[in-house]
């Protein structure tokens, strides 16, 4: 979680500093070149990524238990909470705190 919140701020600070030192146009060009260079480094380090394909599994490769659910599997268990969110006394599922 910290990486997701700190990384953009660090990137903005680095680009701001670079733009201050070299100018906005040069910072944009260098940033683009850095992205291309980083892509080439990752492609060289992980050659399997160059050959990876995103495909949808065919019907024959799906497991047998992944077939269409039966109507009975869609029914709620007998001890499930009712529509108002209240649970039965025996149910381990509790409704919302009131």
TrEMBL record:
Record protein name field? MFS transporter
Keywords associated with the record: Membrane, Transmembrane, Transmembrane helix
Regions crossing the membrane: 26-49
Which residue ranges are recorded for the region named Disordered?
56-98
| Organism per entry | Streptomyces umbrinus
Instruction: Report biased composition (Low complexity) as residue ranges.
Output: 57-82
Q: What is the lineage of its organism?
A: Bacteria, Bacillati, Actinomycetota, Actinomycetes, Kitasatosporales
């Amino acid at each position: 979680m910290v990486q997701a919140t700190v990384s953009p701020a660090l990137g903005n600070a680095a680009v701001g500093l670079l733009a201050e030192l070299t100018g906005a146009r040069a910072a944009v060009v260098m940033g683009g070149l850095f992205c291309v260079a980083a892509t080439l480094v990752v492609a060289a380090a992980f050659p399997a990524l160059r050959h990876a394909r995103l495909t949808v599994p065919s019907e024959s490769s799906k497991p047998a238990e992944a077939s269409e659910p039966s109507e009975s599997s869609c029914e709620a268990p007998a001890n499930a909470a009712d529509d108002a969110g209240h649970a039965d006394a025996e149910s381990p599922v509790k409704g919302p705190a009131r």
